Amino acid sequence: MLFGETGREMARRAREAEKQFEAVKLHTSFRTLQGILDAVDRVTDRPDIQQALLSVDKVIHQAARTQAGGR
Hints:
Radius of gyration: 15 Å
Largest sheet: 2 strands, parallel
Helix content: 40-55%
């Protein structure tokens, strides 16, 4: 995603500065339910959408919460 491109740019800059850089994947949501995240993953799995988001790797989101939404 756009975040991926930014991460690659930061990694490049770190290498040039001879500094350590660690790419940390942030795929866990603490607010969104798994069903919503699954839908996002299905949409962003399309090659045309991945290209538009500048994504190289497939992203799979996970929900940290286990309870149902609503009240």
